[in-house]
Amino acid sequence: MNHSALLVIALILLSGCAPSSDTPQSGAVEPAITEASARMPLPDYFDCLRENGGVVIAAHRGGPAPGYPENAIETMQFNFDNGVRVFEIDVAETRDGVLTLMHDDRLNRTTTGRGYVSDISWEELSGLTLVDNDDGHTRFSPPKLTDALIWARNSGAILELDRKKTTSFANMAKAVYAAGAEENVIMISYNDDEAAEIAAIDPQFMMTASARGGRDIAALEARGVDSRRLIAWTGTGRPDAAAWDRNARNDVESAFGTLGRSGERLDDIYLADGNGSEFQDLADDGLVMLATDRPLEAAAAMTADDTAIAACGG
């Protein structure tokens, strides 16, 4: 029995979660596996990006757009069809233990429902529909994490999993194993303790963790993190090319976010003049993964994402 299978069994026994919670949702988007789905292993892929001056764009909350709500498979498919390959999504858990995609504690902003995600059953949640960021009602329903993972495995997309407080890294890992999506997932950590927890579950998981040079990387390695499977998160406040260089000298790729509050985020500042050349400047300064609320516009303003596809596939 392989390593992943053993971990699945162990996590099921420890968590007490019923395997049925990972059953794919009926009617979920599930593209067929094609040649385009094949991609080099994640550590090799990110090394390739760094070594060739390529950038991969990560769509925050799946890249919502008019008619396409956040944290929806249909939204990710729309962006995927337009060249985006990495999607940050938020993972929450319903009252009856089903992992779903939802950013807020409450349902009010992004669905036709009301109340807390943790107080609703999957049957109730799946009967709701999602609302886009312009308050437009869509025909899309909140998806199971399992269905998003299967979509990513089949399409070749990469999902950054942002754990909400209603669930655990262990439960997320169980879903990843069940979907066979280990090479399509990056776990997000917010501190060294979380990074160590992810590494303890499975040191083969790719993850993001805060790091701005060799000292931070060494501290993470001391907690069990494999630096080859580390993407160094460097914040959203100000680009830090010096930190990106220090990370690269330790063979670690850097991520930075231009996302944030509308009107104040770097996304909006960079695109205010209709140019967006600053996005390419980030790549020229050594950035490897760009997290953005405006993925298609960022992609149109830079060439480093095209360099990434040409050199590393996608």
TrEMBL record:
Q: In the UniProt record, does the keyword tRNA-binding occur? A: no
**Which intervals hold domain GP-PDE?**
55-314
Q: What is its EC number?
A: 3.1.4.46
One Gene Ontology cellular component annotation held by this UniProt entry: plasma membrane
Q: What class of enzyme is it?
A: hydrolase
- GO MF, one example: glycerophosphodiester phosphodiesterase activity
Q: Which residues form the signal peptide?
A: none
Entry keyword set: Hydrolase
One GO biological process this protein is involved in is: ethanolamine metabolic process
Mind telling me what this protein is named?
Glycerophosphoryl diester phosphodiesterase
**What species does this protein belong to?**
hydrothermal vent metagenome
